[in-house]
Amino acid sequence: MNTTQNTPQTPREPTVWPSFQATDAPALIDFLVDTVGFLRTAVYEDGGRVAHAQLDWPEGGGVMLGSHDPDAPPEKWCQTPGTFGCYVVTDRVDELYAHLVDAGVKIFREIEDQPYGSREFAIADPEGNHWSFGTYRGEPRPATRAG
To answer: 146 pLDDT band (50/70/90 cuts)?
Structure first.
């Protein structure tokens, strides 16, 4: 069901930050920065472990990650490494695809135009997380009206 209305649109700033954990957080951070193209905005270590890292996507938004602690109780937000999935918007999808293919990154969904207007592909990072990159920016959200 399409609920888009013909009303003025409000620009969206990134306020949702996906987060995940990694078995080898420093190596995954290096892969995401050096190979994929994220920006290393902040990395805080505690006793040789990554307590918190913020990686920004140059075109907007970003992700947060840290080292997995298999002994942490569930209430400590413990997530199994390799189970994360994320969609990343890019206007450079063909360029990024070619770069990642050349870098030998595991592509598990080849680049393709989608029926909903996006051009996209998907990779797996060294820990098994899934990253989809495409041009689809989501449907515009109607502007809110003052009272």
So the answer is: low
pLDDT digit string (tens) for 117-142? 999 999 999 999 999 999 999 888 78
In contact, 50 and 65? CB cutoff 8 Å: yes
Structure tokens at 110: 């080849």
The full DSSP string for 55-73 is: EE-TTS-EEEEEE--TTS-
Q: How far apart are CA 64 and CA 113, in angstroms?
A: 29
| Residue 11: both structure tokens together | 């620009």
Task: Tell me the per-residue pLDDT of 83-121, one tens digit each, with 9 for 90 and over.
Answer: 999 999 999 999 999 999 999 999 999 999 999 999 999
Query: What is the spatial distance between Cα 61 and Cα 86, in angstroms, rounded to a whole number?
Result: 12
The pairing of beta strand 130-134 with beta strand 119-124: antiparallel
The CA-atom distances, in angstroms, between 73 and each of 50, 69, 70, 77, 84 are 18, 9, 8, 8, 19
Chain-centroid distance, C-alpha 30: 15
